[in-house]
Amino acid sequence: MATSDFAAHAVHAHAAPTSWIRKYVFSLDHKVIGIQYFFLALTAVFVGMFLSLLMRIHLIWPAASLPLLGDIKPETYLTLLTMHGTIMVFFVLTTAPQGGFGNYFLPIQIGAPDMAFPVLNMLSFWVTALAFFVMIAAFFVVGGAPLHGWTGYPPLSALPSAGPGEGLGANLWVISIALFCLGALMSALNFITTTLDMRARGMTLMRMPLTCWAWFITAILGLLAFGVLLSAGILLLLDRNAGTSFFVPLVTINGQLTGHKGGSPLLWQHLFWFFGHPEVYIAILPAMGLCSQLLSVFSRKPIFGYKAMVYAMLSIGFLGFMVWGHHMFMSGMSPYTAFAFSVMTMVIGVPSAIKTFNWLGTIWRGHIRFTSPMLFALGFVSLFISGGISGPFLAQPVLDIQLHDTYFVVGHFHLIMGVASIFGIFAATYYWFPKMFGRMMSEGMARWHFFITLIGTYAIFMPMHYLGMAGHLRRYSQLTELNYLHGLVPVQIFMSYAAFITIAGQFIFLFNLFWSMKFGKKASDNPWEATTLEWTTATPPPHDNFGGHIPVVYNGPYEYSVPGAPRDYIMQTDPSTVTAH
Amino acid sequence: MASITTTASVDTSQVLLAGSGRPDQNALDFVVRLRRARLGIIVALTAVVMIFVSYSSAYVVRQGLPTLDPRTGTLVRDWLPLQLPNFLLVNTLILLVSTLTMELARRQTIRTAFANGKESHAATRTETDGMPWLALTAILGVSFLAGQWLVWRELAASGFYVGTSPSSSFFYLLTGMHGIHLFGGIIALLATGAASLLRKSAVSQGVVVDATAWYWHFMTFLWVYILCLLEFAH
Amino acid sequence: MGLVLLVVIWLITFISAYFFVAKTWWLPVGASAAAAGIDHHFATTYVLMGIVFVAAQLSLGLFAWQYRERSATTPQAHYSHGNNKLEITWTVLTLILFVGLNFMSSSIWASERFRPAVSDAVQVEVTGMQFQWYFRYPGPDGKFGATQPQLQDPSGGGEAALGVDPADPASKDDVVAGTMYVPVNREIDVILRAEDVIHSFFIPAMRFKQDTVPGLAIHMHFTPITTGDYEIACSQLCGLGHYKMHGILRVVSQQDFDKWLAAREAEKQ
Prior knowledge:
The complex is a heterotrimer.
Chain A lengths: L4 H7 L8 H6 L4 H31 L4 E2 L3 E2 L2 H20 L2 H15 L7 H23 L27 H30 L12 H32 L10 E2 L2 E2 L7 H35 L6 H14 L15 H29 L8 H18 L1 H5 L1 H7 L3 H31 L5 H27 L19 H31 L62
Helix pairs in contact in A: 3-4, 3-5, 3-6, 3-17, 5-7, 5-8, 6-7, 7-8, 8-9, 8-10, 9-11, 9-12, 9-15, 10-11, 11-12, 12-15, 12-16, 15-16, 16-17
Chain B lengths: L6 H14 L4 H40 L1 E4 L4 E4 L9 H32 L12 H27 L8 H32 L4 H31 L2
Antiparallel strand pairs in B: 1-2
Helix pairs in contact in B: 2-3, 2-5, 2-6, 3-4, 3-6, 4-5, 5-6
Chain C lengths: L1 H21 L12 H32 L17 H30 L8 E8 L2 E6 L20 H5 L12 E3 L2 E4 L4 E7 L4 E5 L4 E5 L5 E5 L5 E7 L11 E7 L1 H15 L1
Parallel strand pairs in C: 1-5, 4-10
Antiparallel strand pairs in C: 1-2, 2-3, 5-8, 6-7, 6-9, 9-10
Helix pairs in contact in C: 1-2, 2-3
């Protein structure tokens, strides 16, 4: 499957661009596109974080009036949570790890000069950016942004009369998501074709770094899942605007008939979650791949069980398509179907557990270097354990009766997606910043950022499990109506204060990022003494990644501390010390 | 992935490689690009398949789905099958012929591209023998879409709009989604025509026409599938 | 740094675990027949998962400190690509744990959900609408009268809100209430409906939750075993008033229930 130097060269004969527009705006270079995706995600995460700040303020000070924004009305709160979830899941977690770092480093790590289809790559970014713009526009139209949650269940999301923001705002929300689907599908096409067809000589599939496996499997998941979300979105648009009734049965809103009949709200849920469950694996797999990478580099040890890690990711991807019903145990779905989904869900916990054991096995008897990427990788493992352990509770329908739609679920998915996955993005930034920008980020600031974020996010999200067990429902804009919620308000107050501190801590990261671009210590080509291909090339890499010398690969990606070797790491391109892998 | 290239192209590349001892860059370039484009199309079509798989399952489930009749408090089925206009068969015939012309165009263009590959470094010939077939395919494609539009008009005239009934909704949905995808294929054909006029290399054209052909054949197959689903699935 | 990490991770683990063990904020006291079995399984799950949680986190912290790089050269890290026997062992053990837990819970799920209500269950139709719960009792004829969406008038409350069709003879003895009265120690056959969007009927004390879906009438049952008032909450985002869509389940003795129902029937004449 490998192409020769020649063919690769000939096929990627797009010369380095010279005009500013071609270099930085409509670039075909996967490295520039990766950075564009990264900055899109960075913008999105600060917007999403700001929305959650407003949510936390409102929950504990409902009467608070904010400068510029005024009072937070009940419908505003629901809008905040809808847009927070949507923006974070799509424009941060599905964008930065894959579109950002994947775009930049997949070609380099496999020894290719660019992605398979550079024009498509550029298009995929601009379609995604357009989607973000449309999403933000929903805030500013008449009626405002929708309030139906990121899950958008009809009939609430299908009927403009069902609530404020459900008119034009909801239409823009659906259109934005449809555009995002297109961008994601284009990107997935590129990742899959590149991984299969453009690996350098000697870079067999089983010599690929686990990051590349993660990006590859994530792309396959995206390819199969985003089409289904797109289908669902089109049906929702038709129900909203063309008088169809795919999802809406005979209902009245406030006594008024809507003209719909015969549709099935459960159809949306099936389609949405068929996408939605693979989506959460799309959000976590790149971070898992990176964590494996970093634990190995900074323990100076091979990853424990490379093959098992690959098979675990493959089974997570495959099984991920068979568990979507566990989001629907209480939906009115048949209890027999629920049983089937719950068995599959418990089974999918097994490969995740294997990965955790292997991460622990990697650092065991290692030589740990506490660099900033390593801190975040270790933090990722801790958060993955915590977020993962609450899964088996929810996977069992009898327990889900009590916990579904409570803060227990919110705590579970925030620890796993909202923190562990984010730690993956932080780790990637600290790790690859030297290669992308030629300078090191400040380790001092990074450590402050790490500890504030690790402790802070645990303080925010661990208590949510207790709240959930006590019956505290999610998506409640006020906590005044149910008597049994009153005793839980002190916990909410604690979580809000923890959130204020944690959010403040993120500005250390933001400052570190931009300050280091100009003033960070100059970085060598391989500051971490790592073995993979990106560390063999110049910093930052030249336009065709390798300066005309496509690498030839002799070793696996995790040859650290090989007995008898001159140094404690052997580059993948080093032919002199050939190991069995 | 050698199976992605046709036997013809594998043989051709062997001939090209064997003779000189140094691979002919242009021919290798073409083989690599062709393989990559075909892989890309297969991947892309997988996503398209998922869209139609979800619509197919929604269609089948909806047919049998009972809904609550509030008056009686019981579940009733409300599916009334749509009478498919006969003109659809004419459109199907047009599409089937277009897939034939597309295949002829593809073979001619590939042959020309390989011929160019054998010549000097700079590919000079930019006219492909496939042009007439390409143009015919595009015309037939446009005719198909026009025919579909006529079918929609006929349905509307009988009172079946997109929101009239579940069966009419699905009809417009499935034919509309297929039509949008076919329109994309027509754009690709027009782009190739433009590339030829702009004198882009025969190798580039060969890759684009080949990829478009695979896509086009799939669109024909998809149409036949949709027709069968609408007609026979109960 | 290794020591700091160990301390931080261990502290987080102990503090988190403490609140689980101390049950500072916990499941409400169960008041239905199913609650004991569900709560017992909940306890099994959290003990087993708790052990895994603590063991994994403590190991992480311990290894981070124990295997910190002390000198830049010798001794080197242990070069190993893994251990297949260990992989298989922990894979099988995890599979047994997870699937075992699931099968244990499935028998409870089956006993609750795989059978319809008993024939002499008390029927209550629960309807959710933005932003109110209504409860309808079929009356002596045992039949619910027809409802018509065209007749629905939420501002009218009660029967008008449900769109009960006065022309249907079966609706003459239907009682609609804003509070859900049920007799203790009887199986309650709940018929769940929704008029506008998806709601969800949640009674924490009864360990009862079910989405109410427009277009469906979902049957589900529970048996209250302790008298008292219990809060009902809506547990599916349904719009602006989702947070205030609550009700009261009032579990009373059989006599008090009969008296209440009779009084409501009398009011209708």
